[in-house]
Automatic annotation (TrEMBL):
Gene3D superfamilies hit by this protein: Vaccinia Virus protein VP39
Example of a GO MF term: tRNA (guanine) methyltransferase activity
Positions of the Ribosomal RNA large subunit methyltransferase K/L-like methyltransferase domain: 154-318
UniProt cross-references to InterPro entries, sorted A to Z: RlmKL-like_Mtase, SAM-dependent_MTases_sf
UniProt name for this protein: Ribosomal RNA large subunit methyltransferase K/L-like methyltransferase domain-containing protein
Listed PANTHER family: N2-METHYLGUANOSINE TRNA METHYLTRANSFERASE (PTHR14911:SF21), THUMP DOMAIN-CONTAINING (PTHR14911)
Gene Ontology biological process: tRNA methylation
Entries under CDD domains matching the protein: AdoMet_MTases
UniProt-listed Pfam families: UPF0020
């Protein structure tokens, strides 16, 4: 078996964004566009990449592998498949009322470590008619990133984004494994921290000495691994070689909570578009916020192709648009 079905149950807060994230990840890891079935996105992905794909999922609280439908006597075959995927992870088995005898049989065939309180994976068995459907629910990045609360970091600024949302943006920007992601307005470091948790290399900068230093302190105190770099620099003047960045994720300042350091928003964004065009690899993506889509046209007129927009109403005075653009090769 070279491929497996993956299911993603979108979370309540941003279901459409979650589906777009799942489809982007599927494309990146060699899967198909999928179909909606019972409120879930189901798609086919290469068996050896499906687990990594799910570990990057930031929008969904519940996602996993569809092991298939089995007659009762064939359940051990599904369990062997699950055992190969689970390896040394901790897991628990969930069955329907009246089916508890299945648990002993499954655990017997599965071996490994059963952990009811904090499992890494859940094997869920549901019965319909004479057959049993087995699903393996695996931990997604959403769970890990939601535990990271910027307010509790050693350095905080009210402009900080929630890390799970930054992770979602890293995925919408399709940063590949081993690729280099940039946040040119890194603030307290939410994007860099999320990227590191997703296993990506990331570099960020901020024009404010206080923010750049605070971001470094956050990264150090969270003991993050991987290649992470923080500089003090102007987003309009990227201190990097041409064509080196795979993806960019950012939330620019609007001049309210975060200062624009004397520029107008449109002028700053035009300069950022110019700088990103130089350092982004051809085909690379940028995912960013703009208030009500302001400044979007400067990216388009610089040559970027608009691939996705999503509107989020923050409060009556602020509607932000999440934008994805690509540097057309
Ligand atoms: C909205 S905040 C970014 C928040 C960040 N995503 C976080 O989670 O902390 C915008 C940041 O841009 C920085 N900034 C403003 N003008 C800049 C410029 N020209 N170059 C780089 N950073 C700049 C501000 O100091 C601020 O930290």
């Amino acid at each position: 078996m070279n491929s497996i079905e993956v299911f993603v149950r979108p979370a309540q807060d941003f279901p459409e964004l979650n589906l777009t994230e799942a489809r982007t990840l599927s494309r990146m890891y060699g899967g198909d566009a999928g179909r909606i079935s019972n409120g879930e996105l189901v798609f086919e992905a290469p068996l050896d990449k499906a687990q990594r794909l799910l570990s990057r999922m930031c929008g969904s609280r519940e996602a996993g592998l569809l092991l298939g439908e089995y007659a009762k006597q064939d359940i051990p075959r599904a369990v062997r498949l699950a055992a190969g995927i689970i390896g040394s992870m901790r897991y628990k088995v969930v069955v329907e009322r009246g089916q508890r005898d299945l648990i002993t049989e499954i655990v017997h065939n599965m071996g490994g470590i059963v952990d009811i309180r904090s499992p890494d994976a859940i094997l869920r068995v549901t019965k319909s008619g004479g057959s049993y459907t087995l699903k393996l629910i695996l931990g997604t990045a959403r769970v890990v990133l939601s535990k990271l609360q910027p307010k509790k970091w050693v350095y905080f600024h009210p402009g900080a984004l929630q890390p799970f949302f930054c992770g979602l943006m890293c995925n919408l920007a399709a940063c590949p494994d081993g690729g280099l992601l940039l946040d040119p307005f890194c603030g307290v470091g939410s994007t860099l921290i999320a990227a590191s948790k997703l296993g990506l290399n990331a570099v960020g900068w901020d024009i404010s000495k206080k923010q750049a230093y605070g971001c470094k302190r956050n990264i150090a105190s969270l003991r993050l691994g991987g290649a992470l770099g923080v500089l003090r620099a102007d987003a309009a003047n990227p201190p990097l070689k041409s064509g080196i960045i795979d993806a960019a994720v950012f939330d620019p300042p609007y001049g309210k909570v975060s200062s624009l350091f004397g520029r107008s928003f449109e002028v700053l964004l035009a300069e950022v578009a110019e700088g990103l065009w130089r350092i982004l690899k051809p085909g690379g993506f940028a995912c960013f916020f703009t208030p009500l889509g302001r400044g979007l046209d400067v990216f388009v007129s610089r040559g970027f192709k608009l691939t996705y927009t999503y509107t989020i109403r923050i409060h009556s005075g602020l509607t932000r648009m999440l934008v994805v653009v690509t540097k057309v090769a």
